[in-house]
Amino acid sequence: MSNNRYDLITIGRVSMDLFAENIGADFTDISGFETGVGGSPTNIAIGTARLGLWVALLTAVGADEVGKFVHKYLQNEKIDTQFIPTKLKGCTGMAVVGVQPPDKFPLVFYRENPADIYLTIDDAAKLPIATTQSLLLSGTALSRGTCRDATLYAAEEAARHPTKTFMDLDLRPDQWEHPQAYGLNIRAILPQLDVIIGTEEECHAALSANPAQVMEGKPVTATQLAELEATIRALVDQPIGPDVVVLKRGPRGVTIYARATPEENVSGFQVKVLNTVGAGDAFASGLIYGYTNNWGWQQSARFANACGAIVVTRHGCGTAMPTLDEVADFMETRGGL
Fold first, then answer.
1. For a pLDDT cut of 70, what percent of the chain falls above it?
2. Is residue 2 in a domain?
3. pLDDT given for residue 1 in this prediction
4. Residue 110 domain flag
5. What is the maximum alpha-carbon separation in the chain?
6. Can you say how many angstroms the Cα of residue 321 is from the centroid of all Cα atoms in its chain?
7. In sequence order, which residues have a C-beta less than 8 Å from that of residue 175 and are 6 or more positions away?
C-alpha cells in the first residue's frame, strides 16, 4: 500500500511510558520499570498496527533522547513516523505507572511543557487526510497549545472528504485549566465528528453543563446516567454531527447508539484483571479495525471488547496491545464473534 492510502491516521499526545515491574508494590517501593511508548492516540496507532492496519501518527517529540526512543519504538511497531516533527519548545512527554491490581494504578504525567502541544495547522496540513480511510482524534489534544488548532483543522479537512472521523474522548482532568473547558472544547468539534468513543464519565464530562463531579474523579450517579443516555440519543439523531456513540461501561461491556437505530448492548469478557491502563485504547483499536473491514458496529464492538479484555490481563500499555492472531485465539475459546 502506498504511503498516502492509510487505513488510519491518529493525532495527539505521545509519551515514553515507565511501567512498574513490581506488581502490587506501593509506588514508593517500586525498584524497576519496563519502558514503552504511550499516550492514547499513540496507543491506538500501535494497537491498530498490530492488528494489521497501515497507520500513520501525527504527534511531536522534543529534541531529546526520549524523542529518539519514541521514534525508534514506533518504527519498530511499523507505524509511519514521517509526519512526527521535532519541536524545540518542549520536551517529549513521559508517564510513570504503578501497578496494584485489581483497581489501583497510580499514574504520574510529566507534561508540564510537552512537545506535542506545539503541533500546528501546518503540521496537520501535511497529512494525506483526503485519501485516508479513518482519522482518530483525542479529546486531550484540545486542551493546550496550538495542537488544538491542528486537531480542528484535521477534523474539518476530514469532513470535506469520505474520511471517517473517530474521537476517543480520552479525559485527563489534570490537563485542563477549568472543569468546564473540556466539555466546551468537545462540543465545539462535535459537528465534524462521525463516531465518539468514551466511558460514562467521559461522555458526561463532555456533554453535561455541570461536569465538576466527574472532573474531580467521582462516578456518574444514576440520575446523571439516565440524563446522559437521553442526551446521547438526541445527539446521534441530529442530522449534523456524530451518528454513532460507543458508550463504554467497564465489565458490563458497551452500548452502541446509532442514528435511526435502537441501542445495542454488547457484552464484555470476564477475565482476571492485572492492569486496566490501556484497555480503552485497545478497545478503540479493535473498533476501528472492525470498521475498516466493513463489519457492523455490534461485531466491531465485540471484537473491540476482546482486545480490551486481553490488555487488562497483561503488563504494560502499548506493549500489551494484541495481534490479530491473539485476538482470534482469545475469541475462539469464548465462542467467537
1. 98
2. no
3. 38
4. yes
5. 54
6. 13
7. 109, 111, 140, 143, 144
Per-residue model confidence as pLDDT tens digits over 4-25:
689 999 999 999 999 999 999 9
Total-model pTM: 0.96
C-alpha cell at position 54: 497501515
Distance, in Å, from the CA atom of 17 to the CA atom of 108, rounded to the nearest integer, reads 10
**Which H/E stretch holds residue 199?**
strand 195-199
Does an H or E element contain 66, and which? helix 65-76
On whether residue 39 sits in a domain, the answer given is yes
Does 99 fall in a domain? yes
Dist. CA 188–CA 154, nearest whole Å: 14
Give the model confidence (pLDDT) of 173-226 as tens digits.
999 999 999 999 999 999 999 999 999 999 999 999 999 999 999 999 999 999
DSSP, collapsed to helix, strand or coil, labels residue 31 as coil
Which residue range is the domain that position 127 belongs to?
8-332
What residues have CB less than 8 Å from 37, skipping those under 6 apart? 14, 15, 16, 17, 46, 69, 70, 73, 74, 318
Assess contact for 200 and 228: CB atoms under 8 A.
yes
200: domain CATH number is 3.40.1190.20
C-alpha cell at 215: 472532573
> Three cell numbers at 49?
498496527
Query: Grid coordinates in use for 25?
Result: 508494590
Residues linked to residue 56 through DSSP beta bridges, in sequence order: 9, 80
The grid coordinates listed for 319 are 506493549
What secondary structure, in 3-state letters, does 241-284 show? CCCEEEEECHHHCEEEEECCEEEEEECCCCCCCCCCCCHHHHHH
Number of domains in the chain: 1
Burial class (CB in 10 A: 0-12, 13-18, 19+), 92: buried
Check residue 98 and give its pLDDT. Answer: 94
